[in-house]
Amino acid sequence: MEHVSESVLVTGATGYIGGRLVPRLLEKGFVVHCLVRSKRKLQNRPWVNHPNLRVFEGDLQDRSIVSKALEGCRAAYYLVHSMMTAGDEFRDRDNQMARQFASVAEECGLSQIIYLGGLGETGPGLSEHLASRREVEECLSSTTVPVTNFRAAMIVGSGSASFEILRYLVERLPIMITPKWVQTECQPIAVRNVLFYLVDCLEKPSTLGKTLDIGGPEVMTYEEIIQIMARALGLSKRRILRVPVLTPRLSSLWIHLVTPISHQIARPLAEGLRNRVVCRDAEAQGLMPQELLSIQESIERAVGKVAGNEVETAWMDAGPIPGDPEWAGGKVFCDSRKTRYQGPPEWGYAAFTRIGGEHGYYSVDWLWVLRGWMDKMVGGPGLRRGRRHPDKVGYGEALDFWRVTDLQENRRMELKAEMKLPGKALLEFTVEPDPKTPGVSVVTQTAWFYPKGLFGLLYWYMTAPFHGFVFKGMLNGIRQHALSLGRRDERDTPAMEKPSTNISH
Q1: Cα separation of 18 and 10, whole Å?
Q2: 33 touches 27 (CB < 8 A)
Q3: Which end of the chain lies in a sparser environment, N or C, as judged by fewer CB atoms within 10 Å?
């Protein structure tokens, strides 16, 4: 059934669920409105040029932009929620945004709000994170607009935070010292089943005003899920040693050290693990029947997607790209280098956009690994975030402890450091044809550092001696890789089609 004349709004379209929901709504024939902080974060999505897509740029706290995005919509998805546990500040902001969103939706005559929250037993023992999600439910339901609340436990899919935590823990730790929550019961659900519910409820008036628990067909302990993950990865059975002294805080720090997940995100996840997360009933399945994947099927499919570099969205996609803060001193340090090669700019662009992840940094990778471990020890992301795809990159994506803050195809890439630093660091790559020599391209690599205070100055001077071989080696590696890509293209191109790259002197 197609809905060409009907419009729906998706908030959180740059996130894990929202980024997968939008194309499925477009396939159904809906006109999809997306409200995002930055339009450029959608530019690498394969559906960004769909004729039924309308993108609105602005902040969800801006009442006027929310009203504009909701204009003409029948329903709206509210897929925005803080993953921090920094006290009342985040909860108050989340509640305020949800209450305002519901108010504007009522003014615009919306017929339905759809929210994806967390599954968990009610009562005083609920974790702070799950309790906050309950409050958001209440705020969204504070007007006359009917709300369909979905509550899910662990969502299993390639790139999800829960899946990545499990995968990294299982891959790296044949023996695990775990808290007692590994015996807590959980009812995971495959991401494809979640997306089916989110889309299908638009066609089911019976879901209006309902709170629906959604889960897969099985209830298991986290310990059992760990062993299923080990089998899916082709590993031996993991040994589990349960101890009573690991608090959620200690567990989150351990997750931070062993996986790519930051401790700010790991903390609410770890706290939520102490709550039994099992569906109270099967009402959702009765209203919207579908084939539910088992835990084993969900994990095996997700592992296959990761292995095939087919991760559609990832947990770190929605990471912020903050504006420039005010730095003390006004001093800016710069390390700029150039290299030339015989070939078109696209070769150089392909080479420098492949840095990070399993590909590494072309030179002295052990130093980058060491820097990554140092960053993890002080609370930064380290290198384990990797990258979503080994060859492709998009604006706003994470590359290890970098964030892509500018991307111009076959011309430029800018990275902003998200590692813990006493200042701001940028790494910029550009490539352009050499104006003096036809057929030759010039790659420029520039590292910028804006120190914060005295320690920022000391940091630059302490690391400057390493720049000579770190940055020089990386630039040389980019040049060599660009030429190797060119040679590969020449092998794959018939002789009649090969462009001339002779340098004319």
Answers
A1: 7
A2: no
A3: C
Instruction: Compute CA distances 376 → 249, 263, 370, 398, whole Å.
Output: 16, 10, 10, 16
For residue 439, what are its two tokens? 């057929």
Determine the CATH number of domain 333-497: 3.30.530.20
Which of helix, strand or coil describes residue 52?
coil
What the block records as the tokens of 264 is 């700010």
**Per DSSP, what are the bridge partners of residue 151?**
117, 213
User: pLDDT by residue (tens digit) across 136-181?
Assistant: 999 999 999 999 999 998 899 988 888 888 888 888 778 877 777 7
Q: What values do phi and psi take at 389, rounded to 5?
A: -140, 140
Are 44 and 19 in contact, with CB atoms under 8 Å apart? no
Pick the CATH number of 81-307 from 3.30.420.40, 1.10.760.10, 3.40.50.720, 3.20.20.140: 3.40.50.720
This model's pTM is above 0.85: no
Question: And the tokens for 329?
Answer: 């001193």
Q: Which of 93-97, 119-123, 305-309, 446-450 bottoms out in mean pLDDT, i.e. has the lowest?
A: 119-123
Over residues 42-62, the pLDDT tens digits come to: 888 899 999 999 999 998 989
DSSP structural state of residue 277? B
d(CA 470, CA 169): 31
Least confident of 214-228, 249-263, 387-401: 249-263
Residue 318 is given by DSSP the state T
412: its two tokens: 């430029």
pLDDT of 498 > 70? The answer is: no
Region of poorest pLDDT, from 47-51, 148-152, 240-244, 474-478: 240-244
Q: Where in the chain is the domain with CATH 3.40.50.720?
A: 81-307
